[in-house]
Amino acid sequence: MSDWPVGLSTGCFYQKSIFDCLDLILAGGFSLIEICSSPAHLDYHDSASLRRVAERLEALGIGAYSFHAPFADHIDITALDAEQRATSVHEVLVAAEAAAVLRSRHFVIHPGPEHQPHPSGSDRQHRLENVARSLDEIAKRCQQLGLTCVLENKLPHLIFGNTADMLWILGAMTVTDVGVCLDTGHAHLAGELDTATHKLSRHLRMIHASDNRGHGDDHLPPGQGEIDWPRFLRLLRNSGFRGSIMMEIAGHGEPAQILEAARKARQFLRRAAWRLG
């Protein structure tokens, strides 16, 4: 049996203040979380607010397994413009400082912009080189802060949204203490879930677990879409994975409904893992 801890991303409450969610999450049966950096959810620039969140987490006995770095159109650590790239790296570093205050173990980052069309030729190569340099700077700071920097595979229509580019970036970086967060929904849409699980296995530190129906990034609870979870979990076990699974599901409905769906999905994953024997 593979006994991987299964936690919940607070992203399902990204439009609510984190102060209004933590008690609900714990009452819903989750004590291991990934912290979402959405502006409406958490102001990671506010040091006083961060200290209050850290105190609340400790009081409730909730562990911040990971912290998701901010991602938005204006944050582009691959940017060809040096000033934009430096500003983007700075914003990510501010978030890393916040993750350390909240005693997170992993700092999850998208290695590229959110709506950048696929470049070609020299533009693509320059962006690849830029992302490696930017991530080296971020990963070094993460090491100093006691965090492990982990790169998340992106949606297939985005730049670097494939396994081959992830491997190139990891190989081009000079910092070696860097891992991967495998997003099942993204990899499924790319048709690369098996490939990514196998080829990125040496780097895997955590899983973002969500399901979809093959057409969009639905962030359905595991078991409600098309992903063959028994097959995926078998591949994950055979890879020697020793990290945690963070469910990253959509926040549709009332909090009680969201948490009930999360509990059912966690039970689904646990049963599927137990059946591996």
List the helices and strands and how they pair.
Blueprint: E1 6-9, H1 22-27, E2 32-35, H2 47-60, E3 63-68, H3 82-101, E4 106-109, H4 121-145, E5 148-152, H5 163-172, E6 178-183, H6 184-189, H7 193-199, E7 204-209, H8 229-238, E8 244-247, H9 255-274
Parallel strand pairs: 1-2, 1-8, 2-3, 3-4, 4-5, 5-6, 6-7, 7-8
Helix pairs in contact: 3-4, 4-5
Shape: globular
CATH superfamily: Divalent-metal-dependent TIM barrel enzymes
Mean pLDDT: 95
Please report the first level of CATH classification, the CATH class: Alpha Beta
Could you give the distance between the termini?
5 Å
Largest sheet: 8 strands, parallel, barrel
Quaternary structure classification: single chain
So, CATH architecture?
Alpha-Beta Barrel
Sheet-strand content, in percent, reads 5-15%
The helical percent reads: 40-55%
Number of helices: 9
Spans where pLDDT lies below 50 across 5 or more residues: none
Strand order of the largest sheet: 1-2-3-4-5-6-7-8
| Radius of gyration (Å) | 18 Å
